[in-house]
Amino acid sequence: MALASFINNCHKILINNQDTNTQKAMHYIADTRRVSKKSIILHQIGYCPFDAKLPKEIQFYGKDLSNIKPNDKGFEYFLHGRVIVPIFSEFGEPVGVATRKPSSEPGNAWWNLARPFRKGDHLFLLDKTRKKIFKKNKIYVVEGYMDGVSLLQEGLNLVCALMGTALTHRKVGLMARYCNNICLCLDIDKNHSGQKAQEKAIYTLSEFGFCDSISVIDHLDIGQDPDEYVAIHGLTDFLDGERILKESEITKICKNIRQQNKK
What is the pLDDT of residues 166-185, one digit of tens each? Predict the structure, then answer.
């Protein structure tokens, strides 16, 4: 399979190559994002070099992207020089990759291969945590890739990530297969978008009616991601901030969402 081969090749390049660009990518992953060598291997994180010749099956993923300009030399050049984080289905089949320039510059965001992969159909890390989630009947839901990787690395083996998207019905359906207790650990943003996303997620979960409990971890500082918080305060402090929502609180949130939907 072309995607699996691409993931494997990029992973080998990151682990084995010593050129300047690969070292820069490794520095970003290991030092800036604090991902251990063990986690890099577990998640098959890789790097696509500037001189990579990509299979046509991989190039196909990006042909409908609006940010590929007509004068670009081809889709493969958009992947060159980027960190590669594989995304797997709940049963471990590679379905896509998240990519990012190895830099923390403003505006540098994660980008996904566009098709046939759909972020709304998958939960990042569920392939690695679903058995523990089922056994403990509990899942911790974070927003970003590195949030999930960092928390799993710190020992929270009940975590999955939304990959920066809303909590879709498909994602809720995946959760419902494995547990009835959901804890939302979403970003606290300056523009309140994270808080709004959390309320919508609570509303979506309540629609399905399968949860024994819905809880939140929302004691992070504004603008702080879970992985940043855990790096400073530790996992125990992070989990100590969990609070189970009362039925009256959930009802109030759902009522507000319904009113907003009517406008």
Answer: 899 999 999 999 999 999 99
**The domain made up of 2-117 is a member of CATH 3.40.50.150:** no
Q: How far apart are CA 22 and CA 46, in angstroms?
A: 9
Going 220 to 225 to 230 to 235, the CA torsion angle's sign is: positive
The CA distance from 250 to 41, in Å, is 40
**Do 126-262 and 2-117 have the same topology in CATH?**
no
Domain range summary for the chain, segments of one domain joined by +: 2-117, 126-262
Average pLDDT over residues 180-199: 81
- Residue 106 DSSP SS3: coil
**Using the 8-state DSSP alphabet, how is residue 143 labeled?**
S
CATH for the 126-262 domain, from 3.40.50.920, 3.90.226.10, 3.90.650.10, 3.40.1360.10:
3.40.1360.10
The pTM score is 0.90
pLDDT digits (tens, 9 = 90+) for 68-86: 444 455 554 578 889 999 9
* Whole-number Cα distances in Å, 50 to 29, 53, 80, 162: 18, 9, 4, 29
